[in-house]
Specification:
With 492 residues, the chain is mostly helical. It contains 19 helices and no strands. Helix 7 runs antiparallel to helix 13. The radius of gyration is 22 Å and the shape is globular. The mean pLDDT is 90.
Length: 492
């Protein structure tokens, strides 16, 4: 009987693997995307708004004070500690109880954290709120990427990860531009927004609170939409729920046939691993009891650790870094806000070309743009147009490797431990984000007393980029190939 179930499960997996297009409703991509929109809104909403938070809540005397990046460092670090807790403790639960259920739990936690942020009245409560939010975000990103990889076609895992990632760029855009609108004084364009509200009245003191309140509302919308998501058929099969998995695959085939006319022939059968009794310990043994998965884990953790040092220093702290280097706060915020144009170009690029190159190849392309963009900002001086161009290139660069690396990480572990494996790599890697921003803040603070110069700005951006260079070298030299291969062949 068990042998028949295994054969049947293998047939269902093969039927999924022959579907060359997205087999579910595209509405579900939108539903997952709304969640990503909120999580990245939360990551980026602190970038511009934190200067106002520091002035009004933490009583910093000047918007260009080097104390602001110093205050920001522990906040980003604890947010990432929360991210790690969520990744390592909550994400693996989805390997036990399912992707769909945990996607709802993570959105609840993230929304509550954002609401707490809006109500925080001192530094300690602000830290706690960002930690709670990080717990939800860390778990959510791991489970969303796991889910996409399990239902996307073999030749489109990077493509559909990128499509959902497009929503994250919209969230980042919303977070940065709302911060500019609600928390900075009005300034003539292009040095700021002429209609910004953060210079007087209610928004001069509370614009940042409104930002986090909006985040809580977005989380509520994301939660309500996720009730309609189907479960991952691969997860159902791994738990022995063959009938439920087949119902979803039947639906996927019907949709594909309507669009394509007929489906390709079945590929060879791969017998999936059906877990009799699942636990977190079982998932850990799956990863660390297999030398191949251990090697992948080490490579991916190092890649994420150093890569996130660059990503989070720029994603959460670019405005504060620029202000410390002598840029007026509104101009610094505008430079960061314009930069998100480059971020939006990332999923458009990887949607069309992400599956054509090996995942690790994208790390090389990415770091070249990061270095170029940072140097342009450092050398721009008073040329605001050059600063804008540099920011667009910079945002394009430090984000370009992320969606394909999300795909790469999820592909690298088997279904029974996929969410756990992703969470371990991405979660532990996020330690680098906090380390990076604290290191750069300390670097700026120690050098700022000698005066801000072009050479200092070049040094700062080269240091920020160096972390990503190390990440790229590790990925390229030691990384494994996964593009356009069957998921159960890559990670049986």
């Amino acid at each position: 009987m068990a042998e028949k179930a295994t054969v049947k499960a293998g047939e269902i997996i093969a039927r999924m693997d022959r579907i060359p297009i997205w087999g579910l409703s595209y509405i579900f991509i939108g539903i997952l995307g709304i969640g990503f929109l909120f999580t990245f809104y939360d990551i980026f909403d602190i970038n511009v708004s934190f200067i106002q938070t520091a002035l009004t809540l933490f009583h910093v005397t000047s918007p260009s004070s080097p104390q602001i990046p110093v205050l920001l460092g522990p906040i980003v670090l604890l947010n990432l500690v929360g991210y790690i807790i969520g990744s390592l403790i909550l994400s693996p639960v989805s390997d036990i109880i399912g992707r769909r259920r945990m996607l709802m739990v993570t959105m609840i936690i993230t929304g509550l954290g954002s609401l707490y942020n809006a109500l925080a009245n001192d530094y300690v409560n602000f830290l706690i709120a960002r930690t709670i939010t990080g717990i939800g975000v860390g778990a959510d990103l791991a489970i969303v990427n796991t889910y996409i990889n399990e239902v996307a076609p073999m030749n489109g895992r990077a493509k559909y990860t990128s499509l959902v990632f497009l929503f994250s760029t919209l969230g980042a855009t919303l977070g940065i531009w709302l911060g500019l609108f609600l928390t900075t004084p009005s300034s003539p364009f292009p040095l700021g927004l002429p209609f910004a509200l953060g210079g007087s009245g209610f928004f001069a003191l509370n614009g940042w609170r409104v930002m986090y309140g909006i985040g809580a509302l977005l989380a509520l919308i994301g939660l309500l939409l996720r009730f309609s998501l189907p479960e991952s058929p691969r997860w159902l099969i791994s738990r022995g729920k063959i009938t439920e998995a087949e119902m979803i695959v039947n639906m996927m085939e019907t949709k594909a046939v309507k669009k394509l006319g007929q489906l390709p022939p079945l590929p060879s059968l791969i017998s999936p691993y059906i877990v009799q009794k699942h636990s977190y310990l079982t998932a850990m043994k799956t990863i660390f009891g297999n030398s191949n998965y251990v090697k992948r884990f080490i490579i991916l953790v190092i890649m994420w650790l150093f890569g996130y040092m660059t990503v989070y220093t720029l994603a959460a702290g670019l405005t504060s870094v620029l202000a410390s280097l002598g840029f007026p706060p509104s101009e610094a915020g505008m430079i960061a806000a314009i930069g998100v144009i480059g971020f939006i170009l990332v999923p458009i690029t990887t949607f069309f070309t992400g599956d054509r190159l090996e995942r690790k190849t994208w790390t090389i392309i990415s770091v070249i743009f990061t270095i170029l963009g940072g140097l342009l900002i450092a050398l721009a001086g008073t040329n605001i147009a050059l600063s804008f161009l540099g920011s667009i290139i910079l945002f394009y660069g430090f984000n370009l490797w992320v969606p394909t690396s999300y795909t790469w990480t999820a592909e690298s572990f088997p279904t029974r431990a996929r969410s756990t494996g992703f969470a371990l790599c991405d979660g532990v890697g996020h330690i680098g984000g906090g380390i990076g921003i604290i290191a750069v803040a300390s670097f700026i603070s120690s050098l700022i007393s000698s005066g801000v110069t072009t050479f200092l700005a070049v040094e700062v951006f080269l240091i920020i980029s160096l972390f990503q260079v190390i990440s790229t070298i590790i990925a390229v030299i030691a990384g494994h190939k996964t593009a356009n291969k069957r998921l159960d062949e890559i990670s049986p």
